[in-house]
TrEMBL record, chain A:
GO molecular function: transmembrane transporter activity
Protein family according to the UniProt entry: Belongs to the ABC-4 integral membrane protein family.
CC terms in the record's Gene Ontology section: plasma membrane
Full protein name: ABC3 transporter permease C-terminal domain-containing protein
Species of provenance: Sphaerisporangium rufum
UniProt keyword Cell membrane present: yes
TrEMBL record, chain B:
Family matches, as PANTHER family: IMPORT ATP-BINDING PROTEIN (PTHR24220)
Keywords tagged on the record: ATP-binding, Nucleotide-binding, Transport
Protein name: ABC transporter ATP-binding protein
PROSITE patterns linked to this entry: ABC_TRANSPORTER_1, ABC_TRANSPORTER_2
Matches recorded under InterPro entries: AAA+_ATPase, ABC_transporter-like_ATP-bd, ABC_transporter-like_CS, ABC_transpr_LolD-like, MacB-like_ATP-bd, P-loop_NTPase
Organism: Sphaerisporangium rufum
ATP-binding keyword on record: yes
GO CC annotations, alphabetized: membrane protein complex; plasma membrane
Keyword Iron-sulfur on entry: no
GO molecular function annotations of the record: ATP binding; ATP hydrolysis activity; transmembrane transporter activity
ABC transporter domain span: 12-250
Length: 754, 252
């Protein structure tokens, strides 16, 4: 690049620092939001990464009969460090009639360097409290354990030991309970000796941390060979990761949608800013060309200047994203975004910047080299409507401003569009918000009429229903069972849920067709329909619990579980051996009932009660993203508006003198300018809100269908919210337009151009 | 180029130059068949009433506007067939422009404005700075180097524009109404400077509709409706230059 080009770029950037900073901020904001969102998504769907990194986990865990020689394992090729060996003994956790197998693993009061459990609640093991154990959190949650609570265990010899829960900890070294059994509890070596005195009945566990995780299979194989005959089983990080991974397609696709739309909005902002700047600079560019700048040089210069701003924004955004995830979200996120999505975001944004800048830069390069030729402001005359408006004494500023707004068609369209797109995105964001609200306030409309599930526990299975119904807050208890069903043409099973009966069906949220009325009928979620390529009304053959059954799918329900791959039938539609006694009762509560209180009461009756997880609870992170995106989109809208105001002022530099000469007061001149911009903003915000409202429920439904839950979940934002959003946008826009207009109206306007 | 001019080539030559604008589908002829020959070192004033095509002519000579037909030769080289980029390169090396409205780049300082053409032509920043210091010193603007153009008076801006036009020591200086937007005092200053560079051997083509300004030239070409109606030397009037200046002085 030529020294002259560089000097011009430097001078131009210096002359419009504020605008340049705003462009950088807008891009940085978008990139930060994308990186934060992607990091949260990655962390949310793959909790193993964070746990493993925090706990400095071991890649391979080897379970052996006797304690192996640590030096032997440490000397293996590719092993960086080892954890243990720890002694681990099986026992039974028994509390309130509930029994669960648990592995007691010894650990010292000092946390080890490798394979550290991460204490989340309470405290770590303490030599002063030999009865205290630390329980793995997912197991504790499933068993209703809290720090400070009792943890009675029965050893293999039948003796009960009254241990207490000192703390809860997470670990990346084994999967979550109940997918990964038995439950895990860490215990002091001395206490373990008391619970299980016989070494022969316990095993030894040793963790290997590898220098290169890719060598896992090889190192595991070497370890097995070295410990010939001793090895009972080996688990690797890949199995743990796979067992922890959530299939959260809904979240992923929503984020991708937001990401793409955010990038488009940013591209629009940059294209608008560049285009506006080039338009206001036509005279300078013409001068440069008369001095001997070629078309290519001018285009390259503009591309470099505006592209550099965008790239600076991307770099700042990447840094900001890293800082935000490292500091602001330090509690939730342990590991920064992995390189692939990071690079995808950075390069996607860079490509978008270059494309957005290229067109206005190329057009700027084509400016004719005749600086004297004035850029003719488009001529227009007052329309009949305008004359009529003046006749009925509408304020002249309003009429003149309205006329100005549309004299330059393309910029007017770009401004309107530049406001409409962010507004549409904001509306869609509000729609997502409203959908989440609907999930939480009315779970019965998304297929979760029953917030609690009661399992018999200590109560005889046949009378569990009566016990539950005896509670004043329980309105209904639907007996249910869940069995695996084998469907033709599939190698895996789907879930068949028998819930309610033909005469007293569970209140499913049927969005298509009807509920089952007979024993041979069933309803299914979108996921199952997609999996089997069937539609409502089709007859399918499934094998439920070994019994072939032919059912007609008579309706589609909203199915938040199992990606919608659930077939729901009446309980009396199943063979008696599968149906009786029912595994659980789904409890529908009186509106306004306190879930926790009901649960505690029923627990004390001997029932085992668990909460039904609301899908919205898993999507809480989306709310954070929505807020962040609204901020970024507002920033983009503001950048667009500033450009529009600058272009408008340039067009009006001459008009202003004329208007003043005609006797308009500065206030009227200002009002004219603000009306010119404001009208376009009102149009854009209105159009964006309407488009967003129309699109949002459709988009969310589309998304719902893709995630298997099924269309019918989408909610448009409430009209009041929408109105408020539009008013805020217009108000903010008018304020933004007011500042330059005020300055222009007060300024001494030269009568001749320069 | 030096060899070409030494061989008696004119600095600028046009052959039957025609420019027709299309305005709303109607052809509007601005220049109709102009044959002009400007010798190296000559100072030619192009006069004529408004709309006579004099600005269009000088714009075509500098490649700012394209010709409809005819030929343009600069230093013995045919240039009307050049494309836009080649014209740009030609302008940066051999042609300097001065406009009525100065057309300084507002964002840049006076110093940057003057150094820009030199840098564009590939001069080192140090040489560009030395040339700028020399030119601004000659034009009495040395202390304004770091000012923004908007802080300068019209006359000062036009002198900066002149310095910028001369930065690359062009073969030809094209000036389009350089005093059209100045008061008499500044007009006199700018004309004095033009006279000085002309005495140093600069070829100048100057468009004006002011007879007193044209009186400074070696030769006055008068255009009317896009055609040359008069072309003659004004050597005797050059001696009365001081007289004309006095008249201006009296009126102001």
């Amino acid at each position: 690049m030529n020294a002259a080009e560089r000097r011009w770029i430097r001078a131009d950037l210096r002359a419009r620092r504020g605008q340049a900073i705003l462009t950088v901020l807008a891009v940085a904001g978008i990139v930060t939001a994308l990186i934060t969102a992607a990091t949260l998504l990655e962390d949310g769907t793959n909790p193993w990464r964070g746990l493993f990194a925090r706990g400095n986990g071991a890649h391979v865990w080897v379970h052996t009969k006797d304690a192996p020689d640590p030096a032997l394992l440490r000397s293996l090729d590719g092993v960086a460090d080892i954890a243990g060996p720890y002694r681990s003994a099986p026992a039974t956790f028994a509390l309130g009639g509930k029994k669960a197998p648990v592995a007691l693993q010894e650990m010292s009061p000092v946390l080890p360097a490798v394979g550290r459990p991460i204490v989340r609640d309470g405290r770590w093991l303490d030599a002063a409290d030999p009865a205290g154990v630390v329980v793995e959190r997912s197991f504790a949650r499933a068993s209703g354990l809290r720090a400070g609570g009792a943890f009675p265990v029965v050893g293999l010899d039948g003796r009960t030991h009254a241990l207490t829960v000192a703390g809860l900890a997470e670990s990346g070294d084994q999967g979550f309970y109940p997918e990964w059994t038995p439950g895990l509890a860490w215990i002091l070596p001395g206490t373990l000796d008391q619970v299980e005195p016989k070494i022969a009945r316990s095993e030894s566990v040793v963790g290997l941390r590898l220098a290169d995780p890719d060598d896992t299979a090889l190192v595991a194989q070497h370890a097995i060979t070295k410990l010939a005959g001793q090895v009972q089983r080996v688990t690797t990080w890949r199995e743990v990761e796979a067992s922890m991974e959530l299939d959260n397609r809904l979240l992923g696709v929503l984020l991708a949608l937001f990401g793409v739309a955010g990038l488009v909005a940013a591209a629009l902002a940059i294209a608008n800013a560049t285009g506006g700047r080039v338009l206001t600079q036509r005279r300078d560019i013409a001068t440069l060309k008369s001095l001997g700048f070629t078309r290519r040089q001018v285009a390259r210069m503009l591309l470099a200047e505006h592209g550099a701003l965008g790239l600076a924004g991307i770099v700042a955004g990447v840094l900001c994203g890293r800082l935000v995830t490292a500091y602001a979200l330090a509690d939730t996120v342990a590991v920064p975004l992995s390189p692939v999505p990071l690079l995808a975001i950075a390069f996607g944004a860079a490509a978008m910047v270059v494309v957005a800048v290229w067109l206005p830069a190329w057009r700027g390069g084509g400016t004719p080299p005749l600086p004297a030729a004035p850029v003719a402001p488009p001529r227009g005359h007052l329309s009949r409507l305008a004359r009529l408006a003046l006749l009925v004494r509408l304020p002249p500023a309003l009429v003149l401003g309205a006329r100005d707004a549309f004299t330059r068609r393309l910029p007017a369209f770009l401004t309107t569009f530049g406001v409409a797109v962010p507004m549409m995105m904001i509306t869609i964001g509000l729609g997502c918000w409203a959908t989440l609200d609907a999930f939480q306030r009315h779970p019965e409309r998304v297929g979760q009429a029953a917030p609690l599930l009661a399992r018999p526990g200590a109560v005889p299975a046949t009378s569990a229903g009566q016990v539950a119904l005896a509670d004043p807050d329980v309105l209904a208890a639907y007996p249910g069972s869940e069995v695996d069903a084998l469907v033709p043409g599939q190698t895996r099973t789907v879930r068949a849920r028998a819930l309610g009966s033909v005469t007293d069906p569970y209140p499913f949220s049927v969005v298509e067709g009807r509920l089952f009325r007979d024993r041979g009928e069933a309803v299914a979620g979108q996921g199952l329909l997609d999996l089997l390529h069937v539609q409502v009304g089709d007859v399918i053959r499934v094998t439920v619990g070994g019994t072939p059954v032919i059912v007609r799918i008579v309706g589609r329900v909203l199915e938040p579980e199992q990606d919608g791959e659930v077939l729901s039938v009446p309980l009396d539609g199943l063979a008696a051996k599968d149906a009786l006694p029912p595994q659980y009762h789904a409890l529908v509560l009186r509106p306004g009932a306190d879930l926790a209180a009901v649960r505690t009461r029923l627990q004390s009756q001997g029932l085992e009660v668990s909460y039904v997880v609301n899908p919205a609870d898993r999507l809480v992170v989306i709310r954070v993203i929505i807020v962040a995106l609204v901020v970024v989109l507002a920033l983009i809208g503001a950048a667009n508006l500033l450009t529009a105001s600058a272009v408008g002022l340039r067009d009006h530099a001459l008009d202003l003198a004329v208007l003043k000469a005609m006797g308009l007061t500065p206030r009227q001149v200002m009002a004219t300018l603000v009306t010119g911009t404001g009208l376009l903003v009102v149009l854009g915000a209105g159009a964006g809100a309407v488009a967003g409202a129309l699109l949002s429920s459709g988009l969310i439904d589309l998304q719902g269908a893709a995630s298997g839950m099924g269309a019918g979940i989408g909610r448009a934002p409430a009209p009041l919210t929408l109105l408020l959003a539009v008013l805020t946008a217009v108000g903010a826009a008018l304020l933004i337009a007011l500042i330059p207009a005020r300055r222009a109206a007060r300024a001494r306007i030269p009568v001749t151009p320069r | 180029m030096t060899t070409a001019s030494e061989a008696g080539q004119p600095a600028i030559r046009t052959v039957n130059l025609v420019k027709i604008y299309q305005t709303g589908g109607l052809p509007v002829p601005a220049v109709r068949g102009v044959d002009l020959r400007v010798e190296p070192g000559e100072f030619v004033a192009v006069m004529g009433p408004s709309g006579s095509g004099k600005s269009t002519l000088v714009h075509m000579l500098g490649g700012l506007d394209t010709r409809t037909s005819g030929e343009i030769w600069v230093e013995g080289r045919r240039v009307d067939t050049l494309n836009e980029s080649a014209w740009a390169v030609l302008r940066r090396q051999q042609i300097g422009f001065v406009f009525q409205f100065f057309n300084l780049v507002d964002n840049m300082t006076v110093a940057d404005n003057v150094e820009l053409p030199a840098l564009l032509a590939g001069t080192t920043p140090r040489h560009a700075r030395e040339r700028r210091e020399y030119l601004l010193g000659e034009l009495g603007l040395a202390d304004k180097a770091d000012s923004a153009p908007a802080q300068l008076s019209g006359g000062e801006q036009q002198r900066v524009a002149l310095a910028r036009a001369l930065a690359n020591q062009p073969r030809v200086l094209l000036a389009d109404e350089p005093t059209g937007n100045l008061d008499s005092r500044n007009t006199r200053d700018v004309l004095r400077l033009l006279g000085e560079v002309h005495r140093q051997g600069q070829t100048i083509v100057l468009v004006t509709h002011d007879g007193r300004v044209a009186g400074l030239a070696d030769r006055v070409v008068t255009l009317l409706d896009g055609q040359i109606v008069d072309d003659g030397a004004v050597a005797p009037r050059r001696r009365t230059r001081g007289g004309a200046g006095d008249v201006v002085e009296l009126r102001s």
